Amino acid sequence: QVQLVESGGGSVQAGGSLRLSCQVSGRTLEIYKVGWFRQAPGEEREFVASVIWSGGSTDYADSVKGRFTISRDHALLTVPLEMNNLSPEDTAIYYCGCFRYGTSAYGSWGQGTQVTVSS
Length: 119
Prior knowledge:
This protein is mostly beta strands. The chain is 0% helix and 52% strand. The chain is globular and about 40 Å long.
């Protein structure tokens, strides 16, 4: 199994920045991709960004392109998400999830971290 723990959430004003981090542990050799997702109150969980664990290729939701940057650090076993120019629409609980080789969906979710952006 792979375990994930998110950190770095908080409250900021519109236009501000936050840096989230996803710490991965366990059977990390099984990781194909790590993604960040978010869920606002009353909404479904939505994709934010992902990074291929080995090659580093990234993908972003249109709503965050140019503002958010995802990366991965093999030495620290972390997946940071740098978030800039935040808006109230970015307010949500942010989760990281792991897509393992041989599976067909994200699994092994973390507990989430709250991000609140005030206008």
